[in-house]
Amino acid sequence: MGLLPTDRLPSGIALADAYSAIRTWYRAHADQAIARGDEYGRGSAALIQALPAVSAVSDLEIVAVLREVILGYLEWAYHQSDGRYKMGAYAHFALESAGRSYTLTAEETEVLKSSTLWPYLSPHVKR
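The structure assignment produced for this chain is given below.
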């Protein structure tokens, strides 16, 4: 999935700012995930409910959530906007601003196993 050439882009956005916008939007629209009525929707809704406050989340956990927007339980809203930017734009450009990719190293995956988010991440993100 990718952004469109006409999409507005939040260049220079911090990880925490992107996470905050994403968390706010998904929490307000969690009913759309539930309405799917399938395993993916249930997994998405559970992750949305589990998203910690910005003050209680690490940069690594934010990267894992942004990864979910790009290719996991939160991908269903990749092209949805909060009126400023699409969820996918927040995810990609926060990672870019932080000099990060959405891929996780084996070491990062091990660290995430102790996160409260771990049980809610999509299976392919846990690899």
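Interim note for the steering committee: The CA atoms of residues 39 and 45 lie 10 Å apart. The mean pLDDT is 95.
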